[in-house]
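Entry 12.
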Amino acid sequence: MARTAEIKRTTGETDILVKIDIDGQGKSEIDTGVGFFDHMLTALSKHSGMDLEVKCKGDLYVDAHHSVEDVGIALGQAFAQAMGDRKGIVRYGSARCPLDEALGDAVIDISGRPFIVFECDFSSDKCGEMDTQLFEEFMRSFAFNAGITLHIKCPYGLNDHHKAEAMFKSLARALREAASIDQRFKDQVISTKGVL
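Predicted 3D structure (tokens):
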């Protein structure tokens, strides 16, 4: 069964289309109007192996907040829909990815119990035209709408670009692991409750 989904989300602030293929080849077509965010989503796609198409027309004349947050919502919803009943998934994933002097660290549980712990101290207000505060906003929106528990941090680093990218890559690799199918349990949900 194909693990794919398409989400369209339109509000007074954004108009978004997201398509996802969990079992893709890391191909992406990203256009949010926020260059640095496009770069992060492209990295997320490549390193998770998920194919992503993300199109967003947002009220960038205000700032990038609504676009970034709403893409997180739509991408999380698409991920949750594509995962279906979650039978056979490994469920847990973790990854530590360095980018030069910075380290990204992500641990996830595709649990149906959304939660986030985010730890990163940025030294500047922006990466490109993207406010550094928006990295946590995206992670929160994605985690809560995907139904995952996400602990993500950058324990050290000097360059804010490197910090953000290391976290996105660690999230990607953790998702890749957690969403993969464990053939021993392919007809089971890995939970004592029997559902996720």
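Annotation: The chain has a mean pLDDT of 96. DSSP finds four helices and ten strands in the chain.
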